[in-house]
Fold this sequence. Notes:
Blueprint: E1 2-3, E2 8-15, E3 21-28, E4 32-38, E5 44-52, E6 57-61, E7 64-66, H1 73-85, E8 87-89, E9 93-98, E10 105-106, E11 109-115, E12 117-119, E13 131-136, H2 140-145, H3 152-163
Parallel strand pairs: 3-10, 4-11
Antiparallel strand pairs: 1-2, 2-3, 4-7, 5-6, 5-13, 8-12, 9-11
Amino acid sequence: MDDTRRLHVAIAHVELPDGVHFEQYVLRMPKAAMTVVLNDTRDHVLMIYRHRFIPDRWTWELPGGYVDPDEDAALTAAREVEEETGWRPRSLRHLTTFQPLAGTADFENLIYLAEGAENTGQAPDINETARVEWVPLANIKAMIATGEIIGAGAQLGLMFVLANATEPESPPDPSS
């Protein structure tokens, strides 16, 4: 139906195991990469504040973008952090991969984790970011609950980090 650099729309003719037939719109989009950037003490996350015109909302997001053809997704993730925030990640590792609309779209999203970043002194891209802030991780659940963070990728990446945060080890129990 439509085929552009950023979106391919088609109709698939589907037959279910019970013999029911139907047509399904299928969206195919290039993969995207985003990064949860933690500060050195792992208690703040680097986020961008921007307006999204489709839902007509201001929202906090993780830096990220489409992976260019033949570009390594990790390189995309690092490049997008630098372009959108003015910070360069010191480390980068793959955190998780997900499909946000598995029943309708093929839109692979890769989330990376960066621990620590260096300020490049460069201003963030004004077309991507209205504001850049190190947001306390302690505020993230409330920000999701109040609709300040609406993107599925940002929510998933942040919740993944919060769920896997290591608590300080308790001293051994002397009675054992």
